[in-house]
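Question (not urgent): is this output format expected?
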Amino acid sequence: MDDYEDYSQQVHVSLMEKKLFFGIGEKAFYIIGFITLIICALTTIYAIVIGIAGILICRVICKKDPLTIDFALENLMQKDVYEG
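Got this back:
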């Protein structure tokens, strides 16, 4: 009976971690990259400096918890009032 109750299996640590780009969450990295590309297309190539600054600022914010920006973005996307 012990065999049926023991469901534990070893899982590699890398399968339980979220993907991070330069120490920030995946969504935040893609949003900064997309905004940087739009600014570069509309103005000048020097807008890449703005993108690099955005990544560095997000990295400082996400130093203790790498998914801080992702949680903030998810909270911004949620509705304030739910109707049923």
